[in-house]
Known about the structure:
Low-confidence stretches: none
Largest sheet: 3 strands, antiparallel
Number of helices: 2
Amino acid sequence: MRVRFVLTEYVEHLMAEAVYDKLEDGTYSGRIPDCVGVVAFGKTLKECEEELRSTLEDWIWLGLRMGHVLPVVAGIDLNIRLGDERMESL
């Protein structure tokens, strides 16, 4: 029996879509096109990737908490429909 970690899969799929740029000063920027506002910077590509993952995780948590519509990725839909209620217990 295979254990499935949906949130981990969701993050991994989004990270696979990340776009990185090397800036003029030698540092890096990263963003995830489907996640508005998920942007990070780092002195190295690895540092930028780690910061981007952290920013994405915070963005997902906040989106769930605030009831924002999150993108459906690879068939994974984290959007919880509770009528007009928001997820105030998170």
